[in-house]
Amino acid sequence: MSHQQIRERIATLPRLDIALKNTPLEEARNLSRTLGGPRIFVKRDDLTGVALGGNKLRNLEFRLAHAMKDDPDTVIVGLDLQSNSARQTVGACNKLDLKTILVLEGRRPNNVQGNLLVDYLLGADVHFAADQREQRAMLDSLAEEVRTSGGRPHILNDNPMFDVASAVAYLEVTLEVMEQLEARELKPDYFYMSSSGKGSAGIMLAKKLLGADFIMQAICATAEFDLPSRTARIANETIAALGLDIEVAEDEVINTEAFVGKGYGIPSDAGDEAVRLFARTEGIILDPIYTGKAAAGLIAHIREGRFEPDDVVVFVHTGGTPAIFKWNELWI
Ligand SMILES: Cc1ncc(COP(=O)(O)O)c(C=O)c1O
């Protein structure tokens, strides 16, 4: 399929304009030289504009468009205490003139930092739940409260679009990258990205639809999923949503949990080294929870000798930078 045909399929889905798109693709020459590695191009999806940016703003364009069917005045969402998704949701809702209620899993810390600090700055009504059961109950009771006082709540956790919207977003990002590389007369050999299978499903889909032969290497920040089945399911649901008739198989999925370290949400030495290296060679700020671990994977693969010097590696920077402030001691 051509870029135009793929874009026409994407345009069949309801969508709002929230994120800055066509984000820059920046060659990281110092980083490549320091690592003795391939050519590395960083897709700056940390620069999607709203509330310090990140990958979720692109999928919120589809998720919130879907939510608009209920004509809500308040969006209620339950997420983690330091969620990038929560921060970007509040920012997007502010742009759409919607109120946001966050129900975050965890306790309010004494020192409010990182994404949580930005949530407050953005004016979210922040609540805390001890665990997921309590979180679910609070989502429902807060929605009821909004209704009782004459409002129109939408619980974003019940919105069916999260997986598909993320994949569609990164299908589109792949088109942007291909065009940005084509302008330099280049083609990608590899994509590296922090993903639990949503965004990476979209890049795999792009590869198939375009008949491209790059490798999509995802690096997951958590070990809680069966990544091949999850990614293939999301890719195939996205294919159905776009009315296409191809299929993505589980054995095509390349996603590793090897860089999770001690666990989700806990920085790792390799990830922290990667954050420092990107900062000190390119002035690009990653985060220790997602993008730093993905970059640690890329760095490890370079050190293993997986690449030729003129291979073109696209590293997708999915955002998450406010976490550096939560983990301030790591950088001093
Ligand atoms: C900074 C960052 N990178 C990557 C991801 C993973 O994205 P996905 O699993 O939707 O592809 C997330 C969200 O969970 C994130 O916040």
UniProtKB/TrEMBL annotation:
Residue ranges annotated for the Tryptophan synthase beta chain-like PALP domain, each copy included: 20-319
Gene Ontology MF annotations: D-cysteine desulfhydrase activity
Cofactors required: pyridoxal 5'-phosphate
Alphabetically ordered keywords of this record: Pyridoxal phosphate
InterPro entries named in the record: ACCD_DCysDesulf, TrpB-like_PALP, TrpB-like_PALP_sf
Keyword tRNA-binding attached: no
SUPFAM superfamilies: Tryptophan synthase beta subunit-like PLP-dependent enzymes
Residues the record marks as active site: S83
Modified residue annotations for N6-(pyridoxal phosphate)lysine: K56
A Pfam family this chain is assigned to: PALP
Similarity remark: Belongs to the ACC deaminase/D-cysteine desulfhydrase family.
UniProt name for this protein: Tryptophan synthase beta chain-like PALP domain-containing protein
